[in-house]
Amino acid sequence: MRVSVFSMILVVVVAASFAPQCQASGWEALVPAIANKLTSLWESGEFELLGHYCSFNVTPKFKRWQLYFRGRMWCPGWTTIRGQAETRSRSGVVGRTTQDFVRKAFRAGIITESEAQAWLNN
């Protein structure tokens, strides 16, 4: 695991230790909510890009005490190019990662300018 994962776990443990004591039913509701929030920071999946299946993953990262998201994508069976991006936006990191991939694929001559522009303009 990376330092950012340990940092997030440490923050949750410290915050939980300062929280006011509540009944067991309160903790039973609080723990799953915190666990769900933490696990939702990571994501991986697949999508289709220009007729090829591609994979992506998103991981959280702390940088200067701020939460960032690092995205990576690749298209196995098509090219060895990898798209990468880092942003504060959880919802926008996959789009930025894919834009990076499309730009690199265009520079490498794998896709045409019209294909790149059609995807980047949408």
From TrEMBL:
Keywords from the named record: Antibiotic, Antimicrobial, Signal
GO BP of this protein: defense response to bacterium
Keyword Signal: yes
Position of the signal peptide: 1-24
Keyword presence, Signal: yes
Alphabetized InterPro entries for the sequence: Anti-LPS_factor/Scygonadin, Anti-LPS_factor/Scygonadin_sf
Gene3D superfamilies, alphabetized: 3.30.160.320
Protein name per UniProt: Anti-lipopolysaccharide factor isoform 6
Taxonomic source organism: Penaeus monodon
Source organism phylogeny: Eukaryota, Metazoa, Ecdysozoa, Arthropoda, Crustacea
